[in-house]
């Protein structure tokens, strides 16, 4: 695999003959962030780490990285993610809350279902509430 920001530059056919950048070595945590740690990231950590990378360019805001982390955690179906996703569902950004609900539904189980039920009762955003309802059904399967 490539070197973060230099991969596209080096692979693009339009750049044939351009000398590859070999001195840039992004920190491992930028290339392979812990999905659980992404939710604890501060704005300062986003700005000093990811915002200056192509990930920051394409995602533009840490909430989109967090949304992607929620999707990944839901796809992994690892029950260790339930407490973190429950916190996000309780007080995260609207866009991230909906994906945290989906992830909890995908992980399933009694604990995830209980968090979804509690969140559904207090959620003010109609779209997030709808996602919580769908996730509650999925968690029961």
Task: Describe this entry's structure for a reader.
With 141 residues, this protein is mainly α. It has two domains: 1-32, no CATH class; 34-140, Leucine-rich Repeat Variant (Alpha Horseshoe). 65% of the residues lie in helices and 0% in strands. It is built from nine helices and no strands. It has helices at residues 6-11, 28-31, 43-50, 54-59, 62-76, 82-91, 94-107, 110-122, 126-140. The mean pLDDT is 87.
Q: How far is it from the N-terminal to the C-terminal residue, by CA?
A: 38 Å
| Overall helicity | 55-70%
- Main beta-sheet annotation: none
Q: What's the CATH H-level homologous superfamily of the largest domain? A: Leucine-rich Repeat Variant
* Overall pLDDT metric: 87
Shape: elongated
How do the helices and strands line up, and which of them pair or pack?
Elements: H1 6-11, H2 28-31, H3 43-50, H4 54-59, H5 62-76, H6 82-91, H7 94-107, H8 110-122, H9 126-140
Helix pairs in contact: 5-7, 6-7, 6-8, 7-8, 7-9, 8-9
Features:
elongated, 141 residues, mainly alpha, Leucine-rich Repeat Variant, 2 domains
Please provide a brief summary of the model.
The chain has 141 residues and is an all-alpha fold. It has 2 domains: 1-32, no CATH class; 34-140, Leucine-rich Repeat Variant.
